[in-house]
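This section describes the prediction task in plain terms. A model, or a person checking by hand, is given the sequence of a single protein chain and must write out its three-dimensional structure as a string of tokens. No templates, partner chains or ligands are provided. The sample shown here is typical of the held-out split.
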Amino acid sequence: MKKKTRKRILRQVAAGKISAEQGEKLLQELERDERSNDASLSNFGSNVITPANIRNLIPKLEPAVNEEFFDAVKAGAYNGITWPEFKELVIENIDPDFVKELARLGYGGLTDEHLYEFVIFGVNPEFIIGLQKRGYKDIPERKLIEFGIHSVTPEFIDSMSSAGFDDIPTSTLLELKIHQVHPDFMKQYAKMGYKDLDLKKFIELKIHNVLPEFIQAYEKLGYKELPIDKLIALSIHNVTPEFMSDVQKLDPKVSDLDDFISFKIHGVSSEYYESIRKLGYEIESMKKLVGMKIHGASPDFIIEINGLFSEDLSLDQLIAFRVHGISKDYIEKLRDKGTKDLTPEKIVSAKIHGFLNYFD
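The expected answer:
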């Protein structure tokens, strides 16, 4: 197949159909494409042609291949052959008028690889003309193929225009289709009071699964008209109504959404709360646990430190120990130096002022 394509390019140069520079470019692209995997085949999920594949391909093949080949495909003559075999047949049976029309529209001298992908993904003259009429001219070949793969059609562009979005960059059009952001999806947010959102924000909402039902769940809890970025933060950190309910059972005073987000970020859960309570601590506020988590005051650390004193340290004292890097080993070294009446406050002061340095 590679030899056939190379000869075809050379014949086109010899006949003056393409320039020597174009021929050289095509040969370089051929080498690149032959070295890469045939990524287009992976889109069909099967190694052989199936009747379902044929049904999907019929409208794409019809304007691109000769009548005899098209009729044979439609009749099921190629069911069961491999995709590489089918690819070769498609390329050999492309209608010359299809190729000429592509050239007239600015896409002449396509490699066999790109020509096949134009056909298989529905990038035909009608598709290209539709895009050009809407202002999308001189789109690179690869980008056009991506448009075909993801169904970025002229009709889709029209629907976005009707929704108030014109002159959308090609990369954004692709993102919209990939994440299934369409006018009906956007209208749901307008109905909920979220107007004047830009396309990037709609894409972000879809990526983070901030759907209308997600917003409604918070409205039922009394959190109405939340800023979009706050909703996205809640979703990113998986702050669910269930999580909020669990927290409020332990600390009814917590209501600020930023506190719930902080709890999630730092791993302050009902399980962590209970692990501290089991050590005999009354927790007045869940916010206190954030400081403990940030500084690594784990149950194991608490048990180890409290084992060195006749009375358990307060949570504030334990946090101070962690902030200043005071460990069981450090306390034992202080005691080894003969220091007496070592209160937690004195230990912190010794650490701050480098007391042990005087003994080194």
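For orientation: Residues 2-198 form one domain.
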